[in-house]
Amino acid sequence: MKTQTFVSATLISLSLAIPFVAYAQTDTQKLDQQSRGLAKEFLGKLKPELMHAMKNGGPVHALSFCNTKAPEIAANLSKSSGWHVNRVSLKPRGASATPDKWEVAVLKDFEAQKMAGIPVKQMEYSEVIKVDGKPTYRYMKPIPTGAVCLTCHGTHIAPAVKQKLNELYPHDKAVGFNKGDIRGAFSFSKTL
Ligand code: HEC
Question: Where is the signal peptide, in residue numbers (predicted)?
Answer without folding.
Answer: 1-24
